[in-house]
């Protein structure tokens, strides 16, 4: 069935007249009649009773419900991609637990304030899982640790993180290799880039057998570190943000291990929806200034062009 035929059928049903439908659609009555007949042939059913007043048959009453739904979905899909329309639809974001807890809330809040018709779905996970999920089409964009080397990805650095060793006691200096040899570390599951930094740190100290316990949430990890269960490696700002809740202490890691960038990654820009474009622009503008992810109040709804 052609959309044009369904539109004509809908107007005939609304007006109860072939002539009125033709006038509303700026066409001739013969064209209206031809499209109705075409639908009836395709469906092998009489849709309109033409004896006396035009009215829908039982088959016509059944079709009009589907016609309304099909045409509404078609128009909604077109409006989703209109350049000057307000973004709508959904935005699926994947991010690391630490990024979600600290960096994203003010940006997401500003995005929702500016584009309330967009439904946001946020899923957390380790870097490896997030990359895999995006390649499988489960995320529209992701925030991961380190630069993703893929020729078909659009990415830029969103945040710089300084990783620290976290413990339940004060540390004047890094623990001795002998202590680390028997230490327990707490980390997110396999695929977490910060977990890989544990292995790099241990290798730097000549320790190649490390006991690592897996945790699913940041709160659980910090709580157990505060209780003296073991060490963790986390971004310094994440630890500082939660220090009022957990009695934890930290020490900077060596520069070659402790400095890591959090990157925004997404498919090529020509695949983006208007919602995706608007989010990327708000993010890019928010991270232009150091510490400015909360200072995006000057952005207006008419100022959302992405600079790539």
What does the model show?
With 308 residues, this protein is α/β, with parallel strands linked by helices. It folds into two domains: 3-80, Winged helix-like DNA-binding domain superfamily/Winged helix DNA-binding domain (Arc Repressor Mutant, subunit A), CATH 1.10.10; 86-308, D-Maltodextrin-Binding Protein, domain 2. 44% of the residues lie in helices and 20% in strands. It is built from twelve helices and eleven strands. It has helices at 3-15, 18-24, 29-43, 58-80, 97-114, 127-135, 177-182, 193-204, 218-226, 236-242, 255-258, 274-286; strands spanning 48-49, 55-56, 89-95, 118-124, 141-145, 153-167, 184-187, 211-214, 232-235, 249-252, 259-267. Strands 3, 4, 5, 6, 9, 10 and 11 form a seven-stranded mixed sheet that branches. A two-stranded antiparallel sheet has the order 1-2. A two-stranded parallel ribbon has the order 7-8. Strand 7 (184-187), helix 8 and strand 8 (211-214) form a beta-alpha-beta unit. Helix 1 packs across helix 2. The two termini are 41 Å apart. This is LysR substrate-binding domain-containing protein. Belongs to the LysR transcriptional regulatory family. Keywords: DNA-binding, Transcription, Transcription regulation. Residues 1-57 form the HTH lysR-type domain.
């Amino acid at each position: 069935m052609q959309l044009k035929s369904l539109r004509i059928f809908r107007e005939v049903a609304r007006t109860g007249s072939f002539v009125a439908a033709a006038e509303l659609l700026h066409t001739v009555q013969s064209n209206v009649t031809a499209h109705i007949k075409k639908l009836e042939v395709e469906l092998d059913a009489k849709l309109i009773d033409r004896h006396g007043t035009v009215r829908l048959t039982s088959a016509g009453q059944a079709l009009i419900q589907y016609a309304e739904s099909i045409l509404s979905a078609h128009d909604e899909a077109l409006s989703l991609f209109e350049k000057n329309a307000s973004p709508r639809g959904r935005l699926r974001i994947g991010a690391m637990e630490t990024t979600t807890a600290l960096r994203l809330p003010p940006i997401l809040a500003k995005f929702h304030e500016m584009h309330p018709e967009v439904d946001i779905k946020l899923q957390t996970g380790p870097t490896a899982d997030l990359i895999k999920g995006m390649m499988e089409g489960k995320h529209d964009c992701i925030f991961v640790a380190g630069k993703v080397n893929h020729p078909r990805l659009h990415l830029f650095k969103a945040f710089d993180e300084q990783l620290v060793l976290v413990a339940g006691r004060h540390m004047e200096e890094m623990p001795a290799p002998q202590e680390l040899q028997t230490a327990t570390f707490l980390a997110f599951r396999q695929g977490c880039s910060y977990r890989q930094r544990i292995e790099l740190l241990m290798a730097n100290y000549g320790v190649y057998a490390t006991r690592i316990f897996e945790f699913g949430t940041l709160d659980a990890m910090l709580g157990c570190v505060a209780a003296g269960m073991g060490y963790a490696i986390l971004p310094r700002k994440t630890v500082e943000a939660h220090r009022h809740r957990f009695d934890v202490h930290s020490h900077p890691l060596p520069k070659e291990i402790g400095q890591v960038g959090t990157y925004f990654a997404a498919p090529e820009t020509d695949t983006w929806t208007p919602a995706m474009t608007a989010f990327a622009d708000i993010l890019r503008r928010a991270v232009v200034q150091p510490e400015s992810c909360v200072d995006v109040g000057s952005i207006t709804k008419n100022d959302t062009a992405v600079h790539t």
